[in-house]
Amino acid sequence: FISCVHDAACSFYAGERVNAPEIRVSHIVRGRTPQSLGKKASELLECEKTQFYQRLAFAFTIPTIIETIRGQRLELCIGGVRNYSDLNLYRASKGLEKFSVFIGWRVRICSNQILTGEGVKFNMEVTNISELYRNVLELFHSFNPAKEIHLMQSLTNTSLSETQFAQIVGRMRMFQALSPARQKAIPRLLITDSQINSVCRDYYHNEVFGAKDNAISMFDFHNLLTQANKGSYIDTYLQRAVNATEVSVGINNVLQGLDNKYAWFLG
């Protein structure tokens, strides 16, 4: 999976410098091959033992493709997530395999990941590596890096006062307590209470993206959300990263009078 995505990136971005992947895994799952299911654990041969990691995430940057927003250097970043929890590892025959792949911008100073729905393919279903390679190339081809940069630059043109920030994070806390019916009537919010606490703390203490003169730009607010998202499990990280962008852009649109879809968060 990792080699396939990395090779596809080297091919699609030929001539650019592509860094080696950074890899994270979690939750070891020790098992056995399907042919040895009837054996006692003490009777297993070494060749019959298996070891998986339930969750895998990796990412690598292309440092020769860069942009700058509000003095912050952004590098193009590509990666993927693999989660075994929804799969049957012991089935005798292979079927469709699921992979999630992303491409977007990463803020170099803190590694905050900027992702939109257009740069992420969740649960890409394939039957072989060639099919996966082709799907990854299609994602790269459909991704518009200039559009993403323009979207982030639009966030720099709007600021939140301390009162507005307090209103938004208060509503975020209230969202968790709403009935399912009321939650469905409001745009989704995937950030957790503990992550909201992190956003509040960083509002005052983050030297790069925190408040300045009792105000914060929507670009900095977005970075506080993505910074807090680093505490998410691997299998929820991508969804919350995309949601952080959805919420930031939605609130920004309300402030600019473009639409009222996220108006509830501003009271």
Keywords:
267 residues; alpha+beta; 2 domains; six-stranded antiparallel β-sheet; 8 helices; globular
Q: What does the model show?
A:
This protein is an alpha+beta fold. The chain folds into two domains: about 1-145, no CATH class; about 155-265, no CATH class. It has helices spanning about 1-10, 130-140, 145-155, 160-175, 180-185, 195-205, 220-230, 235-255, and strands at about 20-30, 50-70, 70-85, 95-105, 110-115, 120-125, 160, 215. Strands 1, 2, 3, 4, 5 and 6 form a six-stranded antiparallel beta sheet that branches. Strand 2 and strand 3 form a beta hairpin. Helix 1 (about 1-10) crosses helix 2 and helix 7 packs antiparallel against helix 8. It is globular.
